[in-house]
Structure formats: C-alpha cells, structure tokens
Amino acid sequence: MIEKLVKIIDPIGLHARPASILVATASKYAENNVEIVINENKIVDAKSILVVMGLALEAEQEFKIRVNGNNSKKVINEIVSFLEEKNILITV
Amino acid sequence: MKIIGIPASNGISISKVYKYVKNELVVSDKLIDDVDSELTKLSKAIEKTVMSLREIRDITAKNIDEDHALIFDAHLQIATDPEFKRQCKELIVNQKENAAKAYRDVSLGFISLFEAMENQYMKERAEDIKDVSERVLSYLLGVTLKDLSLINEEVIIVANDLTPSDTIQLNKKYIKGFITNVGGKTSHTAIMARSLEIPAVVGTYDVLDKVKNGELMILDGNEGLAITLPTNDEITRHLLKIEELKIIKDNNSKFKDKKTTTKDKKEVELVANIGSTSDIDSVLSNGAEGIGLYRTEFLYMNVNDYPTEEAQFQAYRKALEMMEEKKVIIRTLDIGGDKQLPYMGMEEELNPFLGHRALRLCLEKKDLFKTQLRALLRASCYGDLHIMFPMVATLNEFREAKDFLLECESELLTEGVKISKNYKVGIMVEIPAVAILADKFAKEVDFFSIGTNDLIQYSLAADRMNQKVAYLYQPYNPAILRMVKMVIDASHKEGKWTGMCGEMAGDLIAAPILLGLGLDEFSMSATSILEVRHLFSKLNFQDMKKMAIKTLDMSTNQEVKSFVLKILHK
Question: Do A56 and B122 touch (CB under 8 A)?
Fold first, then answer.
C-alpha cells in the first residue's frame, strides 16, 4: 500500500473534466485498488465517477491518493504525474 | 386533419410520423430467488447500455463535432461506475431485490445526492444520472428506449419538445422534419432545424396527442402547418409544391457565386449567421459572402464545463480558415437571460432579459472573458477576423471591453504569439440607447451590426414569446426604421459600415427597405441568402431609396408593410 498527499490546483475543483480524467486514469489499473482518502473515515473508490464528483472537492483542497496491489509504487507515480501534467493537482 | 403551429424552418416533407415520447418504466417490488440470474441480467443491461452509448457518441461526433460527443463520454463513465454496480449487487444478493428495482433504488440515491448539492453544475449532473439510468432500466425491463440517432428510416419526428441534446443526434438522411408542441421561432429547436436545413413547425400545443406512430404526415415548414392522414388530393398538391420549391431553389442557385448587386449596380454584402463550424459547409454552398454572426454560445452549451482557450482557438481558427478571405464576425459570449449555462452557477434573476448577461457578465467575470479574447486574438492570423461585443449599452462598456482586449493582445505579444494587425472590433446594436447615441459610438467602433430581434423587443417593450403581446413585435414600425437609419448614417459619416444580423435582414419585405436605407451588410440564415440575392437583382436601388424615405414618414407597422408590398408587386 502506498500513499501520496496531493493538492487540487484546477480552479474549478474536482468536478467535470478533472474528475473525469482522474477516474479514467485510475480505472486503467485493473490489477490495483485506487482510492481517495479524505480522512480515515472517508475513503472512496477513485474509479467511481459518481463518488468522486460527489466529494465536491474544490481547488486548494488536499487529499491522499492510495494504491494497493502489484507495482503500487509505479502505478501511483504514473497516476500522479499524469494528473500533474494535466494541471489538475500537485504533490504536496 | 390540419395542425397549425409556428413556421420554424422552411421546406415541405411528406413522411411517416415518429412519436418521440419518453416511455414509462414500471418497476416491480417482487423479490427474487435466483441471485445469479439477476446479477447476469444487470451486467447484460449495462453492457447493452455501454454499446448504445458508444454508438451514439460516434454518431454525434460525426454529425456535429467532438465537443458535443463528450456528453456521451460522461454518460459512459456513469454507466460503468463501479460503486453503482457494487450497491446494486449488494441489494440483489443481500435483500433479494430484482435487478430493475435494485438499479432504480441505487440511481435514485445518487440522483437525490446530486440534486441536493448547492452547486448548480452538480445539480445538473443529476440529469445525466437520470438519463443513463433510464437507459439501463429500459434494457432491464425490456422496454424500447427511443434513440433518435438510431432511427434508420425516413420519418418526421413529433415530440413535446426537442432539446439541443435530442437534436444533436439527428441524422438528416432519415429525419425529414420535426413538429413539436412547444417552442418558438427562435427556440433552439428552430435554430437547429434551420442548421440541418429540414422543415420544422413548433408551438402547436398538442400535435403529440393528435397523431399516431407510422401515420403519413405532410409537414409544411413554410406555412407552419401539418396535415395528418392526408387525402390523395392534398398529397398531390403538396408534391407539386415541393417541385415548385425545388425550381425556385434551382433558379436561386444561379446566384450562388454572384456578388449581390441591384439592377442599377449598387452592391451590398449578404452573409450568414452560424452557431458552430459545422454550419459552414451550408454557408459556402449557399453562396454567402462571409459570416455576419458566429454565435459563440454554442461552444459553452451542451458541454460539461467551460470550453478551454485551446478548444475555442481551434473552433475560431477553423471558421476563419474555412472562410478564407471572406469576413467572419465572431460575437463574444452572449449568455444569461434565456440562455443559461448550468455549470456557471448563476443566480436566478427576476428579469433576466434586463439583467446580468452577455457583455456585462464578461466584464465582471474577466477570466472567462480573457479566455475567449485570447482564443480570438490567437486565431486572428488565420483569416479576416471581426470581433463583436453583444448587448453594449454605454460607451464606457465598449471602452472597457476594448481596453481589456488590447491588454490581452499585449500579453500575447509578449508571449511571442503572432496576432493580425488587421482585425476589426465592432458592436451589436440591440439596446435603443446605443442606436440613439450612434454618432458617438461610430467614432470608436469599426462597425455596427444591428440585432433587431432584441432591438425591436426593447424598443416596443414587448416579449415576442408572450402570446398576449407578440403583436407588438413590429419590425416595420417606423420607430424601428428611424433607429436603423440613425445607426447607418452615423456609421457612414465616420467612414464605417453597418450590418444587420437580426431576422429582419432576411425578411423579404424588410430587406428592400433596409437596402433603401443604406444598410451595407445583411446577415441571415444561409438558406435565405440566394433568395434575397435574387430579389435584390430585380430591384433598383434609387427606387428603394425613395421608398425607404417615405416609410420613415409613416405612422404604423401596417402602413409601412402595405406600402412596401404595393411597390414590390409592381
């Protein structure tokens, strides 16, 4: 299990296109669980568009991305760098 | 039986009725024993949904463009959402609910979750979830869902209303027209029909109740009526009319590559109004000399989020490149009022038509405005760009907008971006105060384009969509003609020009008057251009001048109309 703390930088927050891109990216990794961790009581599936949008996260908000399964280090790095490239979030 | 409505798009069709009604989906509470069977039903239904959404997505990308197809990408993500499936599975396995009930219950849960959110954009996402759930449920219940894009025979669509999303899916090859209960001449349904160049009639109140699926119907978009279960006689008559229209069209087509000149060699410009770059083929094939109005709102509508600078730049560049050396007037964002963007989270206003919209909105939300202006400036090198600001009320507003545009230009130049030195900046004249002060504006703008749809409504203080006062929508009212003359004269005095992008420009009674008043450019839907060019070729400009002056001295709409008709018939 590996985690990274990130901050949303897209001005519209984590809905519409940014959410869609995050979910599409996470969904590519069929062998891994990818989760968004707000706090220990609020952990959600990053492959679910409805749940991710439902979080209604805004710009400047921070959360952790958590990956389980094979090659989790490689997977989390790929996911995070892709989202950074798209100017959706940055690592903190 | 004759059904009367409002003519929304020209043409006559004789085809079968296709009733577009959303089906009722009735879910039962029955519990089940065979859990595996229900789980299989659920996966199959989701699979079928994914397949049709992919098909619709591709059809939309082909018929319209990539951007509009993105709506269906979002639907695909919802359909395959793993949390959704997990919750359904839990209800089927643990509560022994049948698949349809489980699916419906879970969807209602998500729908209420989103509907309860404060953010307007999120509320709208509930609509997407409803849409996708309807699809899956209809597969689960074995009820056919009507997908307009999957229609593969010639039909006339009869519906209560057609949303832009509905019309986006239509394939001209099979859809021979539409007729709806609601809607007006400038509603989206009407505009879409004119873009697709298929006949349409709107505002019939109850056509949906009066017809049966598969029945033969004659749809006359010119007259604004439909005839159901036509007699052989009626069919023959309309087939003849179709032939006549075709002959007129062929005659008009001779004027396609000609300049617009009168008998005594006076030249004016006939250009087209468009909503998106997909309209441009029709613009060129109808012999337009340019684009007099590119309504950029459509870039912001039917998408989930603000269009990016890059996406806008690509659209503007495409328009400019396709039109080559011909002028393209692009109007900056004109939303608010009856045109809302759900993701903007706008507050409701009591009087949206007199409210925070168009340029006022852009001057307040400068980032939004900046994105559009940057995209426009970047595209300026690809053709003859004219930027136009809508809903200008005061000279200060224009100055503020122009200054901001120049700021954006400086920034881009510092970034090393190439910008044309020849682009023009003008304004729409839709607010009476601007028409009256046109002489002052003429010193600072490069051109005027009169937006008569709104100018007439604001001047006569009447909403044309309100049946009770629609009679006050009077394009030939001398008050309007005098204002138009003021604007034209003011522009000519400063060596500038005036065009018109309101419906009036393509009106066969108004156009000769406008010609006589000295209007330089007439912008209309592409399909009206050849007819107007043909008409002008038969007119004498000097005679029209004399006629127009006389109309300025008349007192009523009717007086002007009768006078002009008399002169034209000679």
Answer: yes
The residues near B436 (Cβ < 8 Å, ≥ 6 apart) are B483, B486
Cβ contact B342:B110 at 8 Å: no
Q: What is the pLDDT of residues B284-341, one digit of tens each?
A: 988 999 999 999 988 887 677 888 898 899 899 999 999 999 999 999 999 876 677 7
Looking at the complex, does the CB of residue A50 fall below 8 Å from at least one CB of chain B? yes
- C-alpha span between B61 and B483 (Å, rounded): 43
CB atoms within 10 A of CB B307: 21
CA torsion B451-B453-B456-B459 (nearest 10°) is: -70
B81 has a chain A CB within 8 A of its CB: yes
Q: Is B257 helix (H, G, I), strand (E, B) or coil?
A: coil
Q: Please say if the pLDDT value at position B355 is more than 80.
A: yes
DSSP β-bridge partners for residue B336:
B339
Using a CB-CB distance cutoff of 8 angstroms, which residues of chain A are in contact with residue B341? Answer: none
Contact B113/A54, CB-based, under 8 Å? yes
Tens digit of each residue's pLDDT (9 = 90 or more) over A39-84: 888 999 999 999 998 888 888 889 999 999 989 999 999 999 999 8
Hey, is B226 helix, strand or coil? strand
pTM, entire model = 0.62
Report helix angle B366-379 to B395-414, nearest 10. 60
Q: Using CA atoms in the order A65, A68, A72, A78, what is the torsion angle rounded to 10 degrees?
A: -40
Residue-averaged pLDDT of chain B:
90
**What pLDDT is attached to residue B464?**
85
**Using one digit for the tens of pLDDT, what is the confidence trace for B133-166?**
988 998 999 877 667 777 889 999 999 877 655 6
Closest CB to B304: pick one of A16, A54, A56: A16
Share above pLDDT 70 across residues of chain B, in percent, rounded to a whole number = 95
Is there a contact between B281 and B337 (Cβ–Cβ < 8 Å)? no
Cα first-last separation, chain B = 37
B103 in contact with A at a CB cutoff of 8 Å?
Answer: no
Residue B448: strand pairing partners: B427, B498
List residues bridging with B267 in a β-sheet: B261
DSSP states of B99-144 as a string? HHHHHHHHHHHHHHHHHT-SSHHHHHHHHHHHHHHHHHHHHHHTPP
Q: Are B74 and A23 an interchain contact pair (Cβ–Cβ within 8 Å)?
A: no
